[in-house]
Amino acid sequence: xxxxxxxxxxxxxxxxxxxxxxxxxxxxxxxxxxxxxxxxxxxxxxxxxxxxxxxxxxxxxxxxxxxxxxxxxxxxxxxxxxxxxxxxxxxxxxxxxxxxxxxxxxxxxxxxxxxxxxxxxxxxxxxxxxxxxxxxxxxxxxxxxxxxxxxxxxxxxxxxxxxxxxxxxxxxxxxxxxxxxxxxxxxxxxxxxxxxxxxxxxxxxxxxxxxxxxxxxxxxxxxxxxxxxxxxxxxxxxxxxxxxxxxxxxxxxxxxxxxxxx
Length: 262
Fold this sequence. Notes:
This protein is an alpha/beta fold. It has nine helices and eight strands. Strands 1, 2, 3, 4, 5, 6, 7 and 8 form an eight-stranded mixed sheet that branches. The chain is globular and about 55 Å long. The relative contact order is 0.15.
């Protein structure tokens, strides 16, 4: 798995800003609640991005614990190292979700957020996740199912065409629905399955969908399937709806907590 081609310096800056918006702060709160880290524990953040979650994890395990945060994007890793520099027990390194740099049964907890969308061999990645957990340890995985999106548009047909192209950005844009079977195949027991909904009525700077609007428009024009003028018309249409007070965006992310049998 490598997302380096998607998240260079510009992508890292964009994602760093996006992770600070209120819906992402709430998402991290729910992830940390499910992860339930204790002081002194050893934890892994797979696909750490700009390091917001790794920072919180390091604060929770404290200096007697250890956090390893990995990513395949050097630009993301640079941002994450800067964010976590105050924690000497947090290590930020380049590594892949399908080849975790950890000993067997060495971790108390692991988390992967918005990672497996980009992984071609999900069973291998989940198998690696199970391998590094000690008996009784837990994992939290969170991902989007892009079929759950509801994005109001003046043209349903154009909206559908936009989403069809946008979902090519991912190896599997519907990966979350496959987690129950994949986790069980890896020998993990599911304790919790829940949704983290994003619902927004304005595409402002402090919104998730507002940050995605120009990114989606650029991607669909660059990758083909939607003409540049149609991509621009789609974005203009959505922003016009917002000016009239008719904007609506909703998307579900799905959180699973699973445990390795003792």
